[in-house]
Design goal:
Length: about 140
């Protein structure tokens, strides 16, 4: 299912040069990073990579969705932790991604943590963008 915004309220703009071994920055100067392939992919490491940037963005976005959803159900997730693991590997002659979201929520039981995390997955913009394109596993637990 494609989720198209009714109205664009913000547009992020970033540019990259040099591919995985280059440099990326946003137009407002808030983010500027050197890029390097990780050692596991034959690179030197020592700098960030696209998968780390994607993981950080997905974790932050999911955390926001989690907070909104939890409040509607009467839960406080302000002390929760979302960790995104973004894996990359060969996939049919190309490369593909897989995501695991580890969601830890304080002061709830296992079933409630999973219920809140699954509901957040239905509304998170990153989840909507990846749905049907890459595998995303949601693992929730009490914190």
């Amino acid at each position: 299912m494609t989720t198209t915004p009714e109205k664009i309220i913000y547009t992020a703009r970033a540019s990259a040069t040099g591919g995985r071994g280059g440099h990326a920055k946003t137009d407002d100067g808030q983010l500027e990073v050197d890029l390097a392939p990780p050692k596991e992919m034959g690179g030197a490491g020592g700098a960030t990579n696209p998968e780390q940037l994607f993981a950080a963005g997905y974790a932050a976005c999911f955390q926001g969705a989690l907070g909104v959803l939890a409040r509607t159900k009467g839960y406080d997730t302000s002390g929760s932790l979302v960790t995104a693991e973004v894996g990359i590997g060969p996939s049919g002659g190309s490369y593909g991604l897989a995501v695991k979201l580890i969601v830890q929520i304080p002061d709830v039981d296992q079933a409630t943590a999973q219920e809140i995390a699954d509901a957040a997955h239905e509304v998170c913009p990153y989840s909507n963008a990846t749905r049907g394109n890459i595998p995303v596993e949601i693992v929730a637990s009490p914190l």
